[in-house]
Amino acid sequence: MTADHRRSFRQRADAGGPVGEGVERTRSRGPVVVNGRDDFTLANFGRVSYGGEPVRIGAQARRAMAAATRPAVGPPGRETTRQASWTQARADFGGGYLDAAVVRGILFACLASLVSGHAGVRPSVAERVAALLDGPMPRVPLDGQAGTGEALPMAHVLAGLPRGDLREGEEEALLGGAPCSAALAADAAISARHRLGHAEGICALSIEAFRAPLGAYDEALDGLWGDRYETAALRGLRRYLEGAGTAERRFHQAPVSYRIIPRVLGQVHRVVAAAEKAATVSLRSVTTDVVYVSDEVGRPGGRAVRSGGSHNGMAYPALNALSAAWADLALVAERQVTALNTAETSDLPVNLVAPGAPGNGTYAYGWAASGYVEEARAAATPALLPGVVEDPHADVLSPVFSAYRRERRAAECLDGVLAILAIVSSQALFVTGRNPAPPLRPLLSFVRSVFPPIDGTGERDLSADGGRLQQALAAAARSGELAAAGPASPSRA
Amino acid sequence: MTVVVDSRDDFTLENYRRVAVGEEPVAIGPRARRTMAEGRADFLRLLESDRTQFIYGVTSSFGPRAKLTIPPDEQRAHARAFGFRRGNWARGFGGGYLDERVVRGIVFARLANFVAGNSKARPVVAERLAALLDGPLPRVPLDGEIGAGEVLPMAHVMQGLRRGDLEEGEANPLMNGSPVSAALAADTALQAGHRLDHAEQIFALSVEAFGAPLDAYDDVLGDLWGDEDDASALAALRRYLAGATPGGRRSAPVPTSYLVLGRVLGQAHRAVAGVDEAARVSLRSVTDNPVYVPPDEGHPLGRAFSTGGFHNAMAYPALNALAAAWADLTLLAQRHVTALGTAAASAPPVRGPGAVAGAATGLEPVLGGLVEEARAAAMPTLLPAAVNDAQDDVSSPTFSAYRRQARAAECLDGALAVLAAEASQVLLRAGHRPAPPLQDLLAAVRAIFPPVDGRPRDAGARGGDLGAALARSAVTGSAPFGSAPFGTGR
């Protein structure tokens, strides 16, 4: 995450602005103070992860942790202690590293179990974990992290934690929960909400560029289809298309890819909501392998419950679903690129070449889009429970890292196709001298600030300009704001 | 009994079950007939106001020739021609056939667009459609049904419908739209809830056979994890383990596959709820293209316009998610069988006075194949890469998703059958009776797959019988293996 993005996120939080639909609006008040599980919200995750804010353990949480009795429990789960010893050897098999912002998010999520008082750790241990957020983040390799629970990546995350004086059960509590799943789901959910918003805008721009009839987005469909997510998608499109002219639109129905876009976007709304729910639930879950329960009537000594909390069963399916939705949306966007670029279909100038201008216009952008679509489809292969078994006891592993990486890749590919759709839409409007509906004009200005229309007046590095637009969309998915990623390549006369 | 449909609200999952599984007929109610007659009259007024306006399939040709306008004096003949010739679009072949109950379900789902007048059709067309349910339904091949919308399978479904007298605007409501997705989702949803219940019972039996500690299913976890689906799974496990003996259970580290049971089943609950919602929403949706919207203040003649309603975008992802959940449960069942076998071999869990010697079931080797097949079936169906033509540039993958889900479910049934047999065997060797809510289940398992006593017999065939019994129970909703139902169930 760049310093600019961090600043942007912070400013938005300070202003109480949206950091993603489904993410609570909040005002930054310096450190994020956590007093209980209810403080582990998506908004606070954003403040800590992207805003770089520190975390302090509140007085109520310290009291809860200090008061919690900790009855004797059997031997620590051998899987977590063994895995910890593995990574103490600094196993690093590469595959790149988690973004530091996400590592911050994992540390934040880790605190939910601790401050609940159910993890059986002392307040000083939680404070020590929180203090890690005041320093640089350790590198967490992306490869080699599928194990029972999340002890493998947590050993990397907590590499800088002084552990010499940890008491019985405390190391297991630190390594034994599922905070990685919570943080990966939260990171994906926040970006996904922004990415969906930008996708709706670019699809609406494409509708305008193609002059598709507006009936396919009519408000009567809200009730006829009767699905809340499709209604959200229809409304999203109508917001962008408000004031769109009706006079110059094609008289007959548009290709399928234009008519079904509200339903495809509706499915994206559904999976984004599911990812937000997975993140919201997971962030505040107590997931340590052993939980201590001390407040039950009739059990003054409390009791220890050993469970499979460290296996998060909802995050990786939610990430899988996002990947599939990105892949499908990429395919529909590619079909719209083809429709716009095909004069026989669109009734637009061949290759969208400006009148009298030389060159090939937007020819072959559809081919480039095909590559992204195929990569997105490959990334949509779901991460299932891994087939391997470590030993007879560690016989089910967590696939969340795989699911996260695939979702990142599918999203990156979608950004590529959306960039191309935006380029081609902008060009179609340019060569026909039209303006889109008023709500779309800021988006069009943004697109053209990164990728000016191809006017045939000079040679440009169209590949580099397209890449910049893809990067700008990726950055916008993180920050929530569309901003140009550097100037377009200069035309060479 | 007859299911009477008067409005879209009558297109419930329960009514679907009555028609598709219970084979009840459908009658169009008087309110629906009135609404359709009014809708038809309103539509004709709209059409007569300007027969040159674009109304897909009425004043225009179909598919890639949508640009081609039909002159006003040829529009009636155009509708009739569709009925006689172009309406015969059945093309797919091979791959087996949809079960007739699903074809019944498709006919039922198709009626949702008629009853509120959005179809533009006369009541007689809907009545004719409903009457199809009184006779044998045509066979719908499973291969070759992927195209834009669902006209390909609908052409098979409508083969027996008399359509030579169709009038303007009455062809598309029969063929266009997405009733197939609605029916496939509904058929799956009805079975999925039962299948999940079977899985919970059999996994609970496995918990008892292994002697796993009950902590991992404690009710305190419902709040600490804070998720409704995880909590439902834990509650179901506790329901089946009620009265389980706390003593004599294993104290050594328990395999993860027993500890994570609540979480993995929680995801299955989530996936089942997803397909349930997709079915409920889809069944009552009006998905016609073009759709007719009755008159309102701003549009005194109503409106007919083209939409993408024929593309159901929620059913196939819901089926994908279910297939993935079944694959993960299949793997978990395999892990349990391995754990039961390993534990029994190394330290037989002798927990009761009636312990007896017994051989292994011999079924464990089949699990490797079932797990791999289930995982292959869990590969998601995405929007198809193929393009039919420039106009029909995105197809619907629901048929593929349905078949993969069914295959993953079949594999899960097999794995659960093996787990049930293995758990039964381990309990016999330990001389242990499971918790009371599981005892009917155990008796039913043993009725089909008696405990192995070392004498030669065809274990594979009996294991197959167990799997088949589970599959039947998933359709009918009966208790697994025909055992007496316990408690409230799902």
Task: Summarize this structure as a short list of keywords or feature phrases.
heterodimer; A: 493 residues; mainly alpha; two-stranded parallel ribbon; two-stranded antiparallel sheet; 19 helices; 4 strands; 53% helix; elongated; disordered N terminus; B: 490 residues; two-stranded parallel sheet; disordered C terminus
Write the layout of secondary structure elements.
The complex is a heterodimer of chains A (493) and B (490).
Chain A lengths: L2 H12 L17 E3 L7 H8 L5 E3 L1 H9 L10 H11 L11 H16 L7 H9 L19 H7 L12 H6 L3 H32 L9 H6 L2 H14 L14 H4 L1 H23 L6 E4 L9 E4 L8 H27 L1 H4 L18 H15 L20 H32 L9 H10 L11 H18 L14
Parallel strand pairs in A: 1-2
Antiparallel strand pairs in A: 3-4
Helix pairs in contact in A: 2-5, 4-7, 5-6, 5-9, 9-11, 9-13, 9-14, 9-17, 9-19, 11-13, 13-14, 14-16, 14-17, 16-17, 17-19
Chain B lengths: L2 E3 L7 H8 L5 E3 L1 H20 L25 H12 L13 H11 L1 H4 L7 H9 L19 H7 L14 H4 L3 H32 L9 H6 L2 H13 L15 H4 L1 H23 L7 E3 L9 E3 L9 H32 L19 H12 L20 H33 L8 H10 L10 H18 L14
Parallel strand pairs in B: 1-2
Antiparallel strand pairs in B: 3-4
Helix pairs in contact in B: 1-4, 1-9, 4-9, 9-11, 9-13, 9-14, 9-16, 9-18, 11-13, 13-14, 14-15, 14-16, 15-16, 16-18
